[in-house]
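Letters spell out the chain; backbone shape is given numerically. Both lines appear below:
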Amino acid sequence: MKFATLLRTLLGVILSTLGLACASTRAPLASVPSVDPARYAGLWYEVARLPNPFQKDNERATAEYIPTDDGRFLVKNTGIKPNGKSRTISGIATPVPGSGNARLKVAFTSFPASLVKPPEEGNYWIIDLSPDYQTAIVASPDRRFLWILARSPALPAKKYDALIDRARELGFNTSRLVTPPEGAMAR
């Protein structure tokens, strides 16, 4: 009887240890140290994203950031369907104090989006930004949302692949990425 109890205990310890070893050890997501709002402002093209409930799979998208006098951004996101029709949603992006402008609280003004208030830590984190402000990876801190953005609608394959690799390194499931119908890589 004691041997059976010892065996069950030992088996339990082994299984627990294996379970801990297999558990996700993802580090918390971090934003870039700082963002220059004047350089970040302007038009960005979505070259890839994780699926989400508010964008259609077959849409291309752009995001335009317009600085305001009070340190925030006006945000204009436009989804463009394959038939050329577009839909736009506007909002306000407020930098989270102490984040170096790298974490934003983005609130959209249309109903029902206006009912969702962004968390205090922000819902739009710039987690990778090229020194020339030509590419960016943005996400929600819980890794539920991810967008890979560029200043042009298509990127050279090498640069695109590097951004996908970086997103994977940051703990995102890049096998689920949605890209625009015409692709995100320059031909």
About this structure: The beta strands are 42-49, 60-67, 73-80, 86-95, 103-108, 124-129, 135-139, 146-150.
